[in-house]
Predict the structure.
Amino acid sequence: MLSLSNRRRRAVTGDERGVAVRLALVYALRMAGLFLALPVLAEHMRTLPGGEEKETIGLALGVYGLTQALFLLPLGWVSDRIGRKPVIYFGLALFVAGGVIAAFASTAWEMVAARALQGAGAISAAVTALVADLTTPTYRTKAMALIGASVGLSFVLSLAIAPLLYGVAGIKGVFLTISALGVTAAVVVARGVPTPPRVNREERALEEEEKRPIARFWYSLLGHRQLWRLHLGVFVLHFVQMAMWVVVPRLLVEVGGVSLSNHWIFYGVTLGIAIAAMGPALLIAEREGRIAEVYRIAILLLAVAEVLLAWIAEEGESIFGLAAVLTLFFWAFNVLEATQPSWLSRAALPQYKGATLGVYSTLQSLGLFAGGAIGGWLSACFGSMGLFGIAAVLALLWYAWAPRAPLLAVK
Protein backbone atom coordinates (compact mmCIF):
# COMPACT_ATOMS: atom_id res chain seq x y z
CA MET A 1 0.00 0.00 0.00
CA LEU A 2 1.25 3.49 -0.82
CA SER A 3 2.10 5.70 2.14
CA LEU A 4 0.15 8.89 2.65
CA SER A 5 3.01 11.08 1.38
CA ASN A 6 3.43 8.89 -1.71
CA ARG A 7 -0.29 9.06 -2.49
CA ARG A 8 -0.21 12.83 -2.30
CA ARG A 9 2.88 13.04 -4.50
CA ARG A 10 1.16 10.86 -7.09
CA ALA A 11 -1.73 13.34 -7.06
CA VAL A 12 0.50 16.27 -7.98
CA THR A 13 0.32 17.00 -11.69
CA GLY A 14 2.36 19.18 -14.00
CA ASP A 15 5.96 19.41 -15.01
CA GLU A 16 8.21 19.67 -11.97
CA ARG A 17 10.85 21.68 -13.74
CA GLY A 18 8.32 24.20 -15.04
CA VAL A 19 6.74 24.59 -11.60
CA ALA A 20 10.15 25.05 -9.98
CA VAL A 21 11.15 27.68 -12.55
CA ARG A 22 7.93 29.64 -12.06
CA LEU A 23 8.18 29.56 -8.26
CA ALA A 24 11.84 30.57 -8.45
CA LEU A 25 10.68 33.50 -10.59
CA VAL A 26 8.11 34.48 -7.94
CA TYR A 27 10.83 34.33 -5.27
CA ALA A 28 13.21 36.38 -7.40
CA LEU A 29 10.61 39.03 -8.28
CA ARG A 30 9.91 39.66 -4.63
CA MET A 31 13.59 39.74 -3.70
CA ALA A 32 14.00 42.41 -6.37
CA GLY A 33 11.97 44.60 -4.02
CA LEU A 34 14.99 44.61 -1.76
CA PHE A 35 17.76 44.56 -4.33
CA LEU A 36 16.42 47.22 -6.73
CA ALA A 37 16.56 49.77 -3.93
CA LEU A 38 20.09 48.91 -2.78
CA PRO A 39 22.17 50.91 -5.28
CA VAL A 40 20.07 54.08 -5.11
CA LEU A 41 18.20 54.28 -1.79
CA ALA A 42 21.14 55.42 0.35
CA GLU A 43 21.85 58.38 -1.92
CA HIS A 44 18.15 59.22 -2.34
CA MET A 45 17.61 59.21 1.44
CA ARG A 46 20.04 62.10 1.75
CA THR A 47 17.61 64.24 -0.28
CA LEU A 48 14.67 63.60 2.08
CA PRO A 49 13.94 65.54 5.28
CA GLY A 50 15.40 63.55 8.19
CA GLY A 51 17.47 61.31 5.92
CA GLU A 52 20.89 62.86 6.41
CA GLU A 53 21.99 60.53 9.23
CA LYS A 54 23.72 57.28 8.28
CA GLU A 55 21.77 55.43 10.97
CA THR A 56 18.49 56.42 9.32
CA ILE A 57 19.80 55.40 5.92
CA GLY A 58 20.80 52.01 7.31
CA LEU A 59 17.37 51.58 8.92
CA ALA A 60 15.63 52.32 5.62
CA LEU A 61 17.79 49.72 3.91
CA GLY A 62 17.45 47.07 6.60
CA VAL A 63 13.96 47.42 8.14
CA TYR A 64 12.64 45.36 5.23
CA GLY A 65 14.57 42.40 6.63
CA LEU A 66 13.32 42.92 10.20
CA THR A 67 9.61 42.83 9.36
CA GLN A 68 10.23 39.96 6.96
CA ALA A 69 11.92 37.99 9.75
CA LEU A 70 9.01 38.68 12.11
CA PHE A 71 6.35 37.44 9.68
CA LEU A 72 8.13 34.54 7.93
CA LEU A 73 7.33 31.79 10.41
CA PRO A 74 3.76 32.96 11.25
CA LEU A 75 2.83 33.18 7.57
CA GLY A 76 4.52 29.84 6.92
CA TRP A 77 2.44 28.31 9.72
CA VAL A 78 -0.76 29.87 8.35
CA SER A 79 0.04 28.44 4.90
CA ASP A 80 0.01 24.96 6.44
CA ARG A 81 -3.56 25.59 7.62
CA ILE A 82 -5.28 27.54 4.85
CA GLY A 83 -3.09 26.72 1.86
CA ARG A 84 0.02 28.22 0.27
CA LYS A 85 -1.55 30.38 -2.42
CA PRO A 86 -3.80 32.58 -0.19
CA VAL A 87 -0.78 33.41 1.97
CA ILE A 88 1.33 34.20 -1.09
CA TYR A 89 -1.36 36.51 -2.49
CA PHE A 90 -1.70 38.29 0.87
CA GLY A 91 2.06 38.76 1.18
CA LEU A 92 2.36 40.09 -2.36
CA ALA A 93 -0.47 42.56 -1.69
CA LEU A 94 1.47 44.00 1.26
CA PHE A 95 4.60 44.08 -0.88
CA VAL A 96 2.85 46.00 -3.67
CA ALA A 97 1.24 48.45 -1.24
CA GLY A 98 4.59 49.15 0.44
CA GLY A 99 6.18 49.86 -2.93
CA VAL A 100 3.48 52.37 -3.87
CA ILE A 101 3.82 54.18 -0.52
CA ALA A 102 7.62 54.28 -0.90
CA ALA A 103 7.27 55.77 -4.38
CA PHE A 104 5.47 58.80 -2.93
CA ALA A 105 7.30 59.05 0.41
CA SER A 106 8.20 62.67 1.17
CA THR A 107 10.21 62.14 4.37
CA ALA A 108 12.84 59.66 5.53
CA TRP A 109 10.51 58.09 8.10
CA GLU A 110 7.74 57.61 5.56
CA MET A 111 10.28 55.69 3.50
CA VAL A 112 11.23 53.57 6.52
CA ALA A 113 7.55 52.76 7.16
CA ALA A 114 6.98 51.85 3.52
CA ARG A 115 9.98 49.53 3.50
CA ALA A 116 8.72 47.90 6.70
CA LEU A 117 5.35 47.23 5.05
CA GLN A 118 7.09 45.73 2.01
CA GLY A 119 9.00 43.32 4.22
CA ALA A 120 5.87 42.27 6.13
CA GLY A 121 4.71 40.45 2.99
CA ALA A 122 7.04 37.59 3.94
CA ILE A 123 6.20 34.74 1.57
CA SER A 124 9.58 33.00 1.35
CA ALA A 125 8.63 30.10 3.63
CA ALA A 126 5.26 29.63 1.89
CA VAL A 127 6.93 29.61 -1.55
CA THR A 128 9.59 27.08 -0.56
CA ALA A 129 6.94 24.92 1.10
CA LEU A 130 4.89 25.07 -2.12
CA VAL A 131 7.97 23.90 -4.01
CA ALA A 132 8.17 20.94 -1.64
CA ASP A 133 4.45 20.23 -2.13
CA LEU A 134 4.77 20.16 -5.92
CA THR A 135 8.06 18.30 -6.41
CA THR A 136 9.27 14.80 -5.66
CA PRO A 137 12.26 14.26 -3.34
CA THR A 138 14.50 13.34 -6.26
CA TYR A 139 13.96 16.73 -7.90
CA ARG A 140 13.50 18.87 -4.80
CA THR A 141 17.17 19.59 -4.19
CA LYS A 142 17.52 20.92 -7.73
CA ALA A 143 14.42 23.05 -7.22
CA MET A 144 15.81 24.54 -3.99
CA ALA A 145 19.13 25.23 -5.69
CA LEU A 146 17.21 26.94 -8.51
CA ILE A 147 15.55 29.24 -5.97
CA GLY A 148 18.94 30.09 -4.49
CA ALA A 149 20.33 30.83 -7.94
CA SER A 150 17.29 32.98 -8.77
CA VAL A 151 18.03 35.17 -5.74
CA GLY A 152 21.56 35.67 -6.98
CA LEU A 153 20.32 36.47 -10.48
CA SER A 154 17.79 38.99 -9.19
CA PHE A 155 20.60 40.61 -7.23
CA VAL A 156 22.71 40.81 -10.38
CA LEU A 157 20.00 42.27 -12.60
CA SER A 158 18.72 44.67 -9.94
CA LEU A 159 22.12 46.24 -9.36
CA ALA A 160 22.60 46.73 -13.10
CA ILE A 161 19.09 48.08 -13.78
CA ALA A 162 18.34 50.22 -10.70
CA PRO A 163 20.76 53.13 -11.35
CA LEU A 164 19.60 53.37 -14.97
CA LEU A 165 15.95 53.31 -13.90
CA TYR A 166 16.64 55.91 -11.21
CA GLY A 167 18.31 58.18 -13.74
CA VAL A 168 15.30 57.97 -16.06
CA ALA A 169 12.34 57.91 -13.66
CA GLY A 170 13.69 58.76 -10.21
CA ILE A 171 12.87 56.93 -6.99
CA LYS A 172 9.18 56.96 -7.91
CA GLY A 173 9.93 54.91 -11.01
CA VAL A 174 12.08 52.46 -9.01
CA PHE A 175 9.40 51.69 -6.44
CA LEU A 176 6.50 51.62 -8.88
CA THR A 177 8.53 49.10 -10.89
CA ILE A 178 8.99 47.07 -7.71
CA SER A 179 5.21 47.08 -7.16
CA ALA A 180 4.66 46.03 -10.77
CA LEU A 181 7.01 43.09 -10.20
CA GLY A 182 4.87 42.07 -7.22
CA VAL A 183 1.73 42.11 -9.37
CA THR A 184 3.57 40.04 -11.99
CA ALA A 185 4.53 37.49 -9.33
CA ALA A 186 0.87 37.14 -8.29
CA VAL A 187 -0.14 36.54 -11.92
CA VAL A 188 2.54 33.85 -12.26
CA VAL A 189 1.22 32.07 -9.16
CA ALA A 190 -2.40 32.33 -10.30
CA ARG A 191 -1.86 31.19 -13.88
CA GLY A 192 1.30 29.12 -13.84
CA VAL A 193 1.42 27.20 -10.56
CA PRO A 194 -0.97 24.34 -9.75
CA THR A 195 -2.69 24.16 -6.40
CA PRO A 196 -1.46 21.16 -4.38
CA PRO A 197 -4.12 18.79 -3.02
CA ARG A 198 -5.44 19.77 0.39
CA VAL A 199 -4.99 17.44 3.32
CA ASN A 200 -8.25 16.48 5.00
CA ARG A 201 -8.57 16.06 8.76
CA GLU A 202 -8.18 12.29 8.73
CA GLU A 203 -5.01 12.50 6.64
CA ARG A 204 -3.63 15.27 8.84
CA ALA A 205 -4.24 13.20 11.95
CA LEU A 206 -2.47 10.22 10.35
CA GLU A 207 0.46 12.44 9.39
CA GLU A 208 0.74 13.73 12.94
CA GLU A 209 0.95 10.15 14.18
CA GLU A 210 3.71 9.41 11.68
CA LYS A 211 5.77 12.44 12.71
CA ARG A 212 8.53 12.28 15.24
CA PRO A 213 7.96 13.67 18.76
CA ILE A 214 7.60 17.43 19.09
CA ALA A 215 10.93 17.70 20.92
CA ARG A 216 12.63 16.15 17.91
CA PHE A 217 10.87 18.67 15.66
CA TRP A 218 12.33 21.62 17.56
CA TYR A 219 15.73 19.97 17.73
CA SER A 220 15.75 19.47 13.97
CA LEU A 221 14.96 23.17 13.49
CA LEU A 222 16.98 24.85 16.20
CA GLY A 223 19.34 22.44 17.91
CA HIS A 224 21.27 20.66 15.20
CA ARG A 225 24.80 21.93 14.68
CA GLN A 226 24.90 21.02 10.99
CA LEU A 227 21.87 23.14 10.19
CA TRP A 228 23.12 26.07 12.24
CA ARG A 229 26.32 26.17 10.22
CA LEU A 230 24.13 27.15 7.26
CA HIS A 231 21.65 29.31 9.21
CA LEU A 232 24.46 31.43 10.65
CA GLY A 233 26.19 31.45 7.29
CA VAL A 234 23.23 33.02 5.50
CA PHE A 235 22.93 35.57 8.32
CA VAL A 236 26.54 36.68 7.86
CA LEU A 237 26.26 36.69 4.05
CA HIS A 238 23.29 39.05 4.04
CA PHE A 239 24.62 41.15 6.92
CA VAL A 240 27.77 41.82 4.91
CA GLN A 241 25.84 42.41 1.69
CA MET A 242 23.45 44.94 3.24
CA ALA A 243 26.09 46.73 5.33
CA MET A 244 28.19 47.27 2.19
CA TRP A 245 25.40 49.09 0.42
CA VAL A 246 25.28 51.77 3.08
CA VAL A 247 28.60 53.05 1.66
CA VAL A 248 29.35 51.43 -1.74
CA PRO A 249 27.28 53.88 -3.83
CA ARG A 250 29.06 56.81 -2.15
CA LEU A 251 32.42 55.08 -2.69
CA LEU A 252 31.70 54.85 -6.40
CA VAL A 253 30.99 58.55 -6.54
CA GLU A 254 34.03 59.57 -4.46
CA VAL A 255 36.63 57.11 -5.77
CA GLY A 256 35.54 56.70 -9.36
CA GLY A 257 33.68 59.92 -9.99
CA VAL A 258 30.74 57.86 -11.32
CA SER A 259 27.40 59.67 -11.05
CA LEU A 260 24.52 57.71 -9.55
CA SER A 261 22.64 57.55 -12.85
CA ASN A 262 25.67 55.86 -14.47
CA HIS A 263 26.26 53.23 -11.81
CA TRP A 264 24.39 50.70 -13.95
CA ILE A 265 27.29 50.59 -16.40
CA PHE A 266 29.74 49.77 -13.62
CA TYR A 267 27.49 47.12 -12.06
CA GLY A 268 26.60 45.60 -15.43
CA VAL A 269 30.25 44.98 -16.34
CA THR A 270 31.38 43.66 -12.96
CA LEU A 271 28.31 41.48 -12.43
CA GLY A 272 28.51 40.07 -15.95
CA ILE A 273 32.11 38.95 -15.39
CA ALA A 274 31.22 37.47 -11.99
CA ILE A 275 28.27 35.49 -13.35
CA ALA A 276 30.32 34.11 -16.24
CA ALA A 277 33.00 32.99 -13.78
CA MET A 278 30.61 31.39 -11.28
CA GLY A 279 29.20 28.81 -13.72
CA PRO A 280 32.28 26.55 -13.73
CA ALA A 281 32.51 26.74 -9.94
CA LEU A 282 28.93 25.50 -9.51
CA LEU A 283 29.50 22.68 -12.00
CA ILE A 284 32.56 21.55 -10.05
CA ALA A 285 30.61 21.76 -6.79
CA GLU A 286 27.63 19.69 -7.95
CA ARG A 287 28.94 17.29 -10.59
CA GLU A 288 32.27 16.45 -8.97
CA GLY A 289 30.94 16.39 -5.42
CA ARG A 290 33.26 19.19 -4.24
CA ILE A 291 30.62 21.49 -2.85
CA ALA A 292 32.38 21.90 0.52
CA GLU A 293 35.59 23.04 -1.15
CA VAL A 294 33.87 25.53 -3.45
CA TYR A 295 31.74 26.80 -0.56
CA ARG A 296 34.73 27.46 1.70
CA ILE A 297 36.74 29.09 -1.09
CA ALA A 298 33.83 31.45 -1.78
CA ILE A 299 33.66 32.45 1.92
CA LEU A 300 37.40 33.10 2.01
CA LEU A 301 37.25 35.22 -1.14
CA LEU A 302 34.33 37.15 0.38
CA ALA A 303 36.61 38.03 3.31
CA VAL A 304 39.41 39.00 0.92
CA ALA A 305 37.05 41.29 -0.98
CA GLU A 306 36.06 43.07 2.25
CA VAL A 307 39.72 43.59 3.23
CA LEU A 308 40.46 45.07 -0.18
CA LEU A 309 37.41 47.33 0.00
CA ALA A 310 38.65 48.63 3.36
CA TRP A 311 42.00 49.45 1.74
CA ILE A 312 40.32 51.17 -1.24
CA ALA A 313 38.12 53.23 1.11
CA GLU A 314 41.23 54.42 2.96
CA GLU A 315 43.63 54.91 0.06
CA GLY A 316 41.23 56.09 -2.65
CA GLU A 317 42.31 53.48 -5.20
CA SER A 318 41.30 53.87 -8.85
CA ILE A 319 37.95 52.89 -10.29
CA PHE A 320 39.58 49.87 -11.93
CA GLY A 321 40.71 48.51 -8.58
CA LEU A 322 37.23 49.02 -7.15
CA ALA A 323 35.73 47.23 -10.16
CA ALA A 324 38.04 44.23 -9.70
CA VAL A 325 37.23 43.92 -5.99
CA LEU A 326 33.47 44.20 -6.47
CA THR A 327 33.66 41.57 -9.22
CA LEU A 328 35.31 39.27 -6.66
CA PHE A 329 32.57 40.05 -4.13
CA PHE A 330 29.78 39.41 -6.63
CA TRP A 331 31.30 36.06 -7.59
CA ALA A 332 31.56 34.92 -3.98
CA PHE A 333 28.09 36.17 -3.06
CA ASN A 334 26.33 34.45 -5.94
CA VAL A 335 28.15 31.14 -5.44
CA LEU A 336 27.17 31.13 -1.76
CA GLU A 337 23.60 32.22 -2.48
CA ALA A 338 23.15 29.32 -4.90
CA THR A 339 24.78 26.55 -2.84
CA GLN A 340 23.41 27.12 0.67
CA PRO A 341 19.69 26.34 0.08
CA SER A 342 20.67 23.20 -1.82
CA TRP A 343 22.75 21.99 1.11
CA LEU A 344 20.02 22.78 3.60
CA SER A 345 17.35 20.90 1.65
CA ARG A 346 19.59 17.80 1.71
CA ALA A 347 20.40 17.97 5.41
CA ALA A 348 16.90 18.80 6.76
CA LEU A 349 14.42 16.17 7.91
CA PRO A 350 12.01 15.55 4.99
CA GLN A 351 8.85 16.09 7.05
CA TYR A 352 10.19 19.37 8.46
CA LYS A 353 11.85 20.69 5.34
CA GLY A 354 9.48 23.64 4.93
CA ALA A 355 9.84 24.70 8.57
CA THR A 356 13.62 24.33 8.39
CA LEU A 357 13.72 26.54 5.31
CA GLY A 358 11.54 28.99 7.23
CA VAL A 359 14.20 29.23 9.95
CA TYR A 360 16.84 29.68 7.26
CA SER A 361 14.84 32.47 5.60
CA THR A 362 14.30 34.12 8.99
CA LEU A 363 18.05 34.24 9.64
CA GLN A 364 18.54 35.57 6.10
CA SER A 365 16.07 38.38 6.80
CA LEU A 366 17.60 39.16 10.19
CA GLY A 367 20.95 39.46 8.45
CA LEU A 368 19.46 41.96 6.00
CA PHE A 369 18.03 44.05 8.84
CA ALA A 370 21.14 43.89 11.02
CA GLY A 371 23.40 44.68 8.09
CA GLY A 372 21.43 47.81 7.22
CA ALA A 373 20.80 49.08 10.76
CA ILE A 374 24.15 48.17 12.29
CA GLY A 375 26.02 48.94 9.06
CA GLY A 376 24.74 52.51 9.17
CA TRP A 377 25.87 52.84 12.78
CA LEU A 378 29.29 51.29 12.06
CA SER A 379 29.80 53.63 9.14
CA ALA A 380 28.91 56.64 11.29
CA CYS A 381 31.25 55.57 14.10
CA PHE A 382 34.21 54.02 12.26
CA GLY A 383 33.89 55.18 8.66
CA SER A 384 33.85 53.04 5.53
CA MET A 385 37.17 51.40 6.34
CA GLY A 386 35.94 50.25 9.75
CA LEU A 387 32.71 48.88 8.30
CA PHE A 388 34.53 46.81 5.67
CA GLY A 389 37.05 45.62 8.25
CA ILE A 390 34.33 44.32 10.58
CA ALA A 391 32.63 42.64 7.62
CA ALA A 392 35.93 40.90 6.82
CA VAL A 393 36.25 39.64 10.41
CA LEU A 394 32.71 38.22 10.30
CA ALA A 395 33.47 36.46 7.01
CA LEU A 396 36.63 34.91 8.51
CA LEU A 397 34.68 33.68 11.53
CA TRP A 398 32.16 32.14 9.14
CA TYR A 399 35.01 30.45 7.28
CA ALA A 400 36.21 28.94 10.57
CA TRP A 401 32.86 27.29 11.37
CA ALA A 402 31.84 26.44 7.78
CA PRO A 403 31.43 22.71 6.96
CA ARG A 404 34.57 21.00 5.69
CA ALA A 405 32.65 18.13 4.08
CA PRO A 406 29.16 17.66 2.56
CA LEU A 407 26.49 17.70 5.28
CA LEU A 408 24.71 14.47 6.10
CA ALA A 409 20.96 14.33 6.55
CA VAL A 410 19.69 15.04 10.05
CA LYS A 411 18.77 11.79 11.79
